[in-house]
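User: Could you write out the 3D structure of this protein bound to iron/sulfur cluster? I've included everything you need below.
Assistant: Certainly. Input first, then the structure.
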Amino acid sequence: MTGETMKKENVNKQNRSCLRIGMISLGCAKNRVDSEIMLGLIKNAGYEITNDIELADIVVVNTCGFIESSKEEGINTLLDVAQLKKTGRLSGIIAAGCLAQRYGKEITALIPEVDAVVGAFGYSNICDAIKCVWECSKKVLTDRPENRSAAEKSRSICYFDDREITDLDYLEGERILTTPACYAYLKIAEGCSNRCTYCAIPSIRGPYRSRPVEKVVREAKKLISRGVKELVVVAQDTTMYGTDISGKSLLPELLEALDGIEELAFIRILYLYPDEITDEIIDAIGKAKKVVPYFDIPLQHINDNVLKRMNRRGNGKMYRDVIKKLRERIPGCIIRTSLITGFPGETEEEHRELLEFLRETRLERVGVFIYSREEGTPAARMNDQVHPSTKKRRYRELMAAQQEVSYNFNSSRVGRVFPVLVESVSDDGIFYIGRSYMEAPEEDGSVFFAAKKEHSIGDIVDVKVLVAEEYDVTGEETGDSN
Ligand code: SF4
């Protein structure tokens, strides 16, 4: 784009009634909720929201800074957007979220096109950041960014973060949902007070802070009144919910309150800490009509020595006992876990124990992560860092073992009928795509099914499974589902 057209372009922008804001949301479900809250603030401030980044005036990239791969994704996304800015089509870039919280200064030094940084405690300032970026961009209408002096550049970067803001009132705001209309994440707390040696989240997001039960229930009712059928309850550690405000877990109380909401169909709980799954929590889940028997329990490993070096509470025996108890108390339940392979000092024997654990316990859903040496974490300073090729080989072995378990599990579903929440239609229009209680959104596979009649997103349809694959199943509508 020539200087001339760029000027014309910017003049058009100046004259347009309102700015167009684009949002790229990276990372976990908790980060997605923050993006949705920011979109709500942006809309209420009168800005136009565009899903097409190419049409945006200002782009917010809500980043993740958890592990190496997510940091790379954040940087690459910012670089892609910076490319767009260099063409003059974009007036401003805002880096938000965990990576911005952790490396705000480094990001703006590395990517001079980034105009503002909104940390993990600064979401409620997103509109001030937009205003600041826009004002700055107007100042440099003629200048190309790289022509500006470093001093001039540093003067104009807006940083928005306020570690003092520990309350979670920003989560009470209106959300622009970015998930399919039939489900939404319900963030019940922020931060984490556990101290797993490999994890930087407590240093990024601060200590554990629960939202009061009544505020969570109020938000849940708002979401359901907008047609949401499934609520996916998230936090860094959902079992710890309420312990910071009442000294004991309020998860049972919250589930009972959510279970009483009329139009809600499904409640799914993620991120349960293994040694905090008390009988009270199991009873509350068992008693509730709408809480699906799906337990997401990040174990991270099964070997006692590795768990100790990870500073994870509990041990291999306790984890096996929790799994056994859940399967006895709630037959047909689904257990999902996430595991870390290649943790510093992990021996071949300890790896083989984890492999054996997968084969013997046959967990329905497993995610495996290669250990990422995170700056500032105790594990990063440990000796005996495992060689990258060994980590990769162990990762492949664990995934291969789990693929077999997952395929056999899905094969056991053939011929059975499950209520499926319709999320979308396949591109060729032949199949509806949805999830039963056995699939968490964005983590697990899907249910593809041929229907007897037209359905809308959010319908719940009885589907008979006909074909199994490693992760997905295919079936057909049966009986007279709603
Ligand atoms: S529980 Fe452990 S891994 Fe999870 S966020 Fe907290 S410190 Fe990190």
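The first strand starts at residue 20 and ends at 25.
User: Perfect, thank you.
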